[in-house]
Specification:
278 residues, 37% helix, 13% strand
């Protein structure tokens, strides 16, 4: 049975919190002076300590775990997870190959479980309350990753997971999204009804954000962005317009559109029927 969603709710999230101080700076600015309500933290990223410091002085910012299992840095050492990372402790970006290995090789699954648990533990060590979990590049859509995330996450207070379903998902992804939604519902995990930002990743500027708000349906929606105070942060995001996304979150026109909608906003914890906090 599914956790009942609100009649209409909106979560506006910044991903990659902790990857770079320019991202952290944008998250703080967009929450203090704009419409950002949540952020997803990369616990093993270079600027994670700075992100945590900022989050502690932003008590109304809802922070979740951005699980990194591709194109990023692991928490465990390469000796502990040699089948997952290179000698520098980085995951690769061959997600199809890695997904097959997660499914087929027990030793790889054991290492995967250990790394997922380590990332949850690292988040707990921050002292921040866990608002939600999602995965870098939506890798939690993989059934093995999702199963481990749910099993391990319960030990760390997991109650909400992003469902990476765009309003019109590609046909090949639809069965996997359906399966994921069923598993989340069976696990009694709160999840969104749809997410915006996948098709415009790195390009959620003011125009794009206003277009989403103009057609915002009922149920719980999430919009995710990648704001930063400068561009060119990583090679994999070379074409991302980080500063335009920050400007959109700070836009008076966007705030006015939200005020007209009168939609309830927050993080996932703000939409849990039994989970209310400051």
């Amino acid at each position: 049975m599914r956790v009942p969603p609100p009649p209409r709710g909106l979560i506006i999230t910044a991903d990659d919190f902790g990857l770079h101080e320019a991202i952290n700076e944008a998250v703080e600015q967009a929450h203090r002076h704009g419409v950002l309500t949540a952020a997803s933290l990369m616990v093993g990223a270079p600027a994670s300590a700075d992100a945590v410091k900022r989050a502690r002085r932003l008590p109304t910012l809802r922070v979740g775990l951005h699980l990194v299992l591709a194109d990023g840095v692991a928490v465990l050492s390469p000796d502990a997870i040699p089948d997952l990372v290179d000698a520098a402790g980085r995951f690769g970006d061959r997600m199809v190959r890695d997904g097959a290995r997660f499914f087929l090789l027990p030793r790889v699954r054991r290492q995967l479980a250990a790394e997922i648990a380590a990332q949850f533990a690292a988040f707990r060590a921050t002292g921040l309350e866990l608002d939600h979990v999602n995965a870098h590049k939506h890798f939690h859509l993989h059934p093995t990753v999702l199963a481990l995330l749910l099993a391990i996450g319960r030990e760390f207070g997991l109650r909400a997971v992003r469902w990476p379903a765009a309003p019109k998902p590609p046909l090949p992804l639809q069965p996997w999204l359906w399966l994921m939604a069923r598993r989340l519902d069976r696990a009694r995990m709160l999840h969104n009804d749809r997410v915006y930002g996948i098709e415009s990743s790195g390009a959620m500027d003011e125009t794009a954000l206003l277009a989403v708000l103009e057609r915002l349906p009922g149920g719980l929606s999430e919009i995710y962005l990648h704001p930063a105070s400068r561009c060119g942060i990583t090679a994999s995001m070379a074409n991302y317009r980080h500063t335009d996304e920050l400007a959109a979150l700070l836009s008076p026109r966007v705030r006015a559109a939200l005020d007209r909608l009168g939609v309830r906003r927050g993080g996932y914890r703000d939409f849990q029927p039994e989970w209310r906090g400051p």
